[in-house]
Write a structure and sequence with these properties.
Rossmann fold, globular, about 40% helix, about 170 residues, alpha/beta, single chain
Length: about 170
Amino acid sequence: MVHLYLGDGKGKTTAALGLAVRILGWDRKVLLAQFLKSFDTGEYAFLSSQKGIVFIRPFMHNKGFLWEMNSEAIEVTKDDIRKGFQDICRQIMSDKFSLIILDEILDVIECGFVSEDSVLELIDNYPAEYVLTGRRASEKIKEKADYITVMVKEKHPFDKGIAARKGIEF
């Protein structure tokens, strides 16, 4: 089955990680691929040491947010993400996972870094429970989904200029 966690609100990655913890509790394998995240996070610090989980982040030459990058840096990031997606697909093909989380993949698709068809092909060819996160999903991806949950921001400290806080937002 396919789960979509969408929206501009906080909680998409957190919801995906909750499902990962639940699956790990039953001694099943998880692949967690995080796109567009090049900094250390609490979830990485904890989950990368746990049995049963493979944690992958594409290597990123650029460490900032996309909206802060110039066009040259965006092209390098696009190449990094495409190579990373290929590595993730190889990892999925080489093992049997109960849950595959593609965190921020919907934003990667929207930016044109990875094609929607390649993600749908992966889902069709390698059966597992999938979680896809990001701000928006196309109708084609929504049709594929079995669960769609939308996180809606009503208020967030970032809007007041408060930076993400260690242990809360990352």
